[in-house]
Amino acid sequence: MWRNPASADQLSTLTGFVLTPALGLGMVALTSIQLPDRSWARLIDDTVPILETEAIAETVNQVTKFWVGRSRPFVHFTTVPFDIDNNVSFFSGHTTLCFAVTVSAGIVAHRRAYAVEPYIWATGLTLAATTGYLRIAADKHYLSDVLVGAAVGTGVGLAVPLLTMHDLTVMPTGNGMALAGRW
User: Fold this and answer.
1) CA–CA separation, 109 vs 103, rounded Å?
2) How far is CA 28 from CA 110, 124, 130, in A?
3) Span 73-87, mean pLDDT?
């Protein structure tokens, strides 16, 4: 924990809700519109999976936070008046969002063979890990909150763009349905 946890909290909000999403979404969107065959369809096809990833990851996070109701670390060591925000430690929404956006943007950039792909991965994952550290330094989360947030964000970040690929097919089988595609 930092001596001034409020500074870590403010920095984590900056890296988690501004810099990382702007980087991931921004790099993919800017690359989309700079291509010779640029079109609104390409821009939408590239950015919608990232936006869907953000929405799904944060919905899962918020439902889990209120269902679990885990106290934040600072609550255990101080006397604080009741606040609903004091009992939503599990799991880190900042970290979830950062990993979800970075992984989703990285998958989209990889699928399109965009030159910015390595920058998305390197910068995005660095900012995501930094955000997780800052949430602990701000005394808002335990290490387990951050690790689960990273895992959930990564999982949703992988699943959404891969499931929105154009060559995905649902077909009947002898005893149900099958999902087929080229990964």
Assistant:
1) 10
2) 10, 12, 22
3) 81
